[in-house]
């Protein structure tokens, strides 16, 4: 930010200067600068960093283990000892939320990673080979899109059962389509560019072109899509847990906490409020971050 | 054009067949017996008779072909959860309820979202823009069961203005529609803002301004039409989602709509109901996409359909 203050309008000026003085502003640095100029994006970055840190160090931060119950203190309203209160069987809500956040983030990150593992190779295959491969992948994508999202996830859960691992697999298996489409679309436009023809003329193999030359160029929009897929996965987990198809007891998850609070919320409002705020915070953080990345990485801004 | 539409309908048929095969296979892969009665031991002969009645004694491919054969004649079978009705009757009874909520949500979400998005785009990067973006993000990030919970708490429990659930009077519509429209409204507002901002930067807009057109004329005459194209491609496919209902909203407000069956059929292994629901959603989805593509060409003559 310190260099930005020397130039009144960093982007335009940087562009104008490059010709005259060539101050060597790299693409990455330019993107970073654009990112940090957006207030909401920085807010998103701060929120997500904070949440990830909390989730990582959950055992150190949480006052009690997530499954510890103190029946004597059940249904305590928020006070100094229990800042977020306790639930009907004496769980400390603060600890449950910290561990619930951990579950939600683990599910979010892993499910999206799994979706990448399916979607990106399929998209590469379709975009690179075209023809029959493209046709088959497109048909699979079409069929997947026609399935009512959450219903399909519910089905799969009822086939394979609940639990963290299965939820990750199910959400991953139902959310790869976006990434596949995007990778394919990116490849279709990149494939025709001159630098690809140049590498082709040099005799590079298809897969080398795809992995070394096409994928890195397709990365910016993919990073955005991945960042925005994380809140969606967290959202789906919350929904499944709400329907009783998600994470098994005693592991807490934010969605489950909101669902479980419903019968008590008329009196014990804090049981619903704090997990809700936690979900909203996680979703907002990742959404702002993704939007900020989109604006920072958008090539049209150059 | 006619050829294109025919081809697309053919593609849709393929998708439907694929969806039905996958669903059929999945329902049969689900562990659990739809007739597991729990306490009562059912004699082996009864079980065999039941299996024969529903065709479970035949090989899977035969069961599938039989099902599709009757489905093409409009017979989707008898739901296990209420054997006195047919699947068709049950859906005919409950879908209108869901559609009512969905239409209400669309009528609130789309106009309001477009209005908010336009305001945000024309006040770009100002405090109004930030406020709209924040509200829109909130609408996107709060699961609608959370919104429903807090609406019930505030308007039904504390203030007592509206019933907390049930069905029958117009009052019963208010809270579910409100809870259901927040998400789509946020989506529309955000998307309208993006489309408008992109279009407002275009050269032809600068030209229109240079000609001396007022801001309103530029917005309604030049920007709106061009921003409409990306808007339609993204927002029209949202409509089937809204019309087929939200499991969560119907659960929270105890609404006798279609969404409820999504849950109960999965839990009770109600094969005929599951099949019918999935196919219904797939058909609605397919025709919406087709409609989207056709509208697309009508709005932008540069786009040619093959």
Outline the structure in words.
The complex is a heterodimer of chains A (302) and B (306). Chain A is an all-alpha fold and 302 residues long. Chain A has a single domain (2-66, 80-301), classed as Orthogonal Bundle (MetI-like fold), CATH 1.10.3720. Chain A is 73% helix and 0% strand. Chain A has helices spanning 2-6, 10-20, 27-36, 39-56, 58-61, 93-129, 131-146, 149-160, 164-175, 177-190, 194-201, 206-242, 254-261, 269-297. In chain A, helix 6 runs antiparallel to helix 12 and helix 9 (164-175) crosses helix 12. Chain A is elongated and about 75 Å long. Chain B has a domain at 93-258: MetI-like fold. Chain B starts with a helix and ends in a 7-residue tail after the last helix. Chain B has 13 helices and no strands. Chain B is mainly α and 306 residues long. The longest helix of chain B has 36 residues, at 87-122. At the A-B interface, helix 7, helix 8, helix 12, helix 13 and helix 14 of A face helix 1, helix 5, helix 6, helix 11 and helix 12 of B.
Q: In the CATH hierarchy, what is the architecture of chain A at level 2? A: Orthogonal Bundle
Count helical runs of chain B: 13
The largest β sheet of chain B comes out as:
none
Helices of chain A, by number, come to 14
Radius of gyration of chain B: 24 Å
Radius of gyration of chain A: 23 Å
Helix content of chain B: over 70%
Shape of chain A: elongated
The sequence of SSEs of chain A as H and E is: HHHHHHHHHHHHHH
Helix and strand run of chain B:
HHHHHHHHHHHHH
Distance between the termini of chain B: 8 Å
Shape estimate of chain B = flat
What name does CATH use for the topology of chain A?
A: MetI-like fold
The CATH superfamily of the domain at 93-258 in chain B is identified as MetI-like
* CATH fold node name of the domain at 93-258 in chain B: MetI-like fold
Q: What share of the residues of chain A lie within helices?
A: over 70%
What's the β-strand tally of chain B?
0
